[in-house]
Amino acid sequence: MQFGRTYEEFEVGAVYKHWPGKTVTEYDDHLFCLLTMNHHPGHLDTNYATTMVQGRNIVVGNYIYSLLLGMSVEDVSGKAIANLEIESLKHVAPTFHGDTIYGQTEVLDKWLTSRPDRGIVHVETKGYKQDGTLVCVFRRKVMVPTEEHLKAHGGDQPGRPELRES
């Protein structure tokens, strides 16, 4: 099973479509707001939200970002040594309860570090609603191992022991 990629497996220009999507529920939004202590009434108070421009509750943007980041782990950072930087984050359009979010990540660049057993991958992730509306875009840099590093350390996943038949 593929979970993340080594440096050599990334190709500049490659696009990874993350699947499955996630339908955002009111519960998801409220739980995230409460866990992060974001008590803005535009997210939690339906009556208040009717007075806002959108006329209804808006899903908190950092939940959408976190959701997309999580969706990208299997394709991008599953083998990561470190997540180094979130370079930019843009919330482009609102998301509402009941919207389904889909994500994709494009590899923008990559380079080896001063240590030959690891490299940096620069990616851009975009999130879309079910109707194709772009809702969120962010760029980040991830440090990943090379194939040589994994072979030298005896495993496909850093820190994951190999499964053996008994």
Describe this structure in words.
The chain is of the alpha+beta class. Mean pLDDT is 91; it is low at 161-166. Strand 3 (100-112) and strand 4 form a beta hairpin. The chain has one domain: Thiol Ester Dehydrase, Chain A, CATH 3.10.129. The protein has helices spanning 26-35, 41-44, 46-49, 61-77, 147-152; strands at 15-23, 82-91, 100-112, 118-129, 134-145.
SSE layout and pairings?
Elements: E1 15-23, H1 26-35, H2 41-44, H3 46-49, H4 61-77, E2 82-91, E3 100-112, E4 118-129, E5 134-145, H5 147-152
Condensed summary:
A hairpin with a 4-residue loop joins β4 (about 120-130) and β5.
Which characteristics define this entry?
alpha+beta, five-stranded antiparallel sheet, Thiol Ester Dehydrase, Chain A
Q: CATH superfamily, please?
A: Hotdog Thioesterase
CATH class: Alpha Beta
Which fold name is given in CATH as the topology? Thiol Ester Dehydrase, Chain A
- SSE series: EHHHHEEEEH
Mean pLDDT: 91
Helix content: 10-25%
- Strand arrangement, major sheet: 1-3-4-5-2
Q: Give the number of helices.
A: 5
Domain module tally: 1
Q: What is the total tally of β strands?
A: 5
Distance, first to last CA: 20 Å
Tell me the CATH architecture.
Roll
Instruction: Report the C-alpha radius of gyration, rounded.
Output: 19 Å
What overall form do the CA principal axes indicate?
elongated
Strand content: 25-35%
- Stretches with pLDDT under 50, minimum 5 residues: 161-166
Class per helix and strand makeup:
alpha+beta
- Largest sheet report: 5 strands, antiparallel
